[in-house]
Design a protein that fits this description.
About 35% of the residues lie in helices and about 25% in strands. By secondary structure, it is of the alpha/beta class. The strands form 2 sheets. An 8-stranded parallel sheet has the order 4-3-2-1-5-6-8-7, sandwiched between helices. Strand 7, helix 7 and strand 8 form a beta-alpha-beta unit. Helix 1 packs across helix 12, helix 8 crosses helix 9 and helix 12 crosses helix 13. The radius of gyration is 20 Å and the shape is globular. The mean pLDDT is about 100. Bound molecules: nicotinamide-adenine-dinucleotide (NAD). Nicotinamide-adenine-dinucleotide binds next to helix 1 and strand 2.
């Protein structure tokens, strides 16, 4: 059993904890919080030992009957590996604490590549993560891009990728974030940071990205054009997607043409928290024209990286050497098969 601590029990941390808790080769030894809020009640409900960044906050937890197991240093003492899911930039500050204790740590996409010196996507470079002390699971947008680019590159070869990201403005519970009534160019200049971020995982890919932010809270949508090294038929491309366990096809028959309808669909399919761990490719958008491929995909920002974190834990622990085996174990434990 790999003993996993989650430092930062928020949007990503609480999902990673739940995904770890159902794997047969790992267990959650603790999660941490900075202050009392609804997520502390969820941790208690799930039975995760709760640790505090600052024990001065303990009386607030005592008052409402939420037991505290200790501070973060005590949590780290119990763990083989820590998933740092604190807000972007905090992970970099925490790195010294992990180094001092010689504990393995996974950082998230809000940290720079240099914090871990290695950026991870299960499909692309699982074997390079074997036994590592530090790994960074790339952001939701980069994970979604890496999965599909790697799949197409392996099958047909890629000369050039151009992608435009339409990003959600905030996560559903983030009441202080916007925009409320604007389409924001993020940034105005080209490229956005996503292309270079893809290259931290797939350095040989020639990619340019542009990004906007819109007033929604559920999912990003990517408009992607790839110039291939050889001509591909639409059916060949769809076959590649169908055989990938983390690429879903939103079929034409569903009549879904928005993120709102997609949320309803995955929710109705019984996904916890309406999570969509796979890329959602709009099947009707998949168009080939000789050596050109165009498509739209939806990426659920809150969940797409969760399965990657589970695989990264396994790779860094060194127990499972084969990426396909880990991916299968992760998916099966979540009772997950891609839509379509
Ligand atoms: P979040 O704000 O929802 O959760 C972060 C949690 O960490 C909060 O509970 C906060 O109280 C806690 N925290 C803050 N400082 C801490 C500290 N010093 N010690 C312990 N806990 C601390 O953030 P999130 O959205 O889950 O993002 C976490 C990371 O995942 C970031 O790097 C982010 O860029 C990345 N990420 C986020 C998303 C997303 O859509 N939310 C998607 C992919 C990757």
């Amino acid at each position: 059993m790999i003993k996993v601590a989650i430092n930062g029990y928020g949007t990503i941390g609480k999902r990673v904890a739940d995904a770890v808790s159902v794997q047969k080769d790992m267990r959650v030894i603790g999660v941490s919080k900075t202050s009392l809020n609804a997520e502390a009640y969820v941790a208690r409900e799930r039975g995760y030992p709760l640790y505090l960044a600052d024990l001065a906050k303990k009386p607030a937890f005592d008052k409402v009957g939420i037991p505290i197991a200790g501070d973060i240093t005590e949590m780290l003492r119990e763990a083989d590996i820590v998933v740092d899911a604190t807000p972007g930039g905090v992970g970099a500050k925490n790195k010294g604490m992990y180094e001092q204790r010689g504990i393995k740590a996974i950082f998230q996409g809000g940290e720079d590549h240099e914090v871990a010196g290695f950026s991870f996507c299960s499909d692309c470079n699982y074997t390079q993560a074997l036994g590592r002390q530090f790994t960074r699971v790339v952001s939701c947008n980069t994970t979604g891009l890496c999965r599909i680019i790697n799949t197409i590159d392996k099958a047909f070869g890629i000369r050039k990728v151009h992608a435009v990201m339409v990003r959600r403005g905030a996560d559903p519970a983030e009441i202080k974030k916007g925009p409320v009534d604007a389409i924001v160019l993020d940034p105005v200049t080209v490229p956005s940071h996503h292309g270079p971020d893809v290259q931290t995982v797939l350095p040989h890919i020639n990619i340019t990205t542009m990004a906007t932010i819109v007033p929604t809270t559920f999912m990003h949508v990517h408009a992607i054009k790839m110039d291939l090294k050889r001509a591909a038929s639409r059916d060949e491309v769809l076959d590649r997607f169908r055989s990938h366990s983390r690429i879903g096809l939103i079929s034409k028959g569903t009549a879904i043409r928005s993120t709102a309808e997609l949320k309803e669909y995955v929710q109705d399919m019984g996904r916890p928290r309406a999570d969509m761990w796979e890329n959602g490719i709009f099947e009707a958008s998949v168009t080939t024209n000789g050596d050109e491929l165009l498509l739209f995909q939806a990426i659920h920002q809150e969940s797409v990286v969760v399965v990657e974190n589970v695989d990264a834990i396994r790779a860094m622990a060194g127990a499972i050497k084969d990426p396909a085996t880990s991916i299968k174990m992760t998916n099966e434990a979540l009772q997950f098969s891609a839509i379509g």
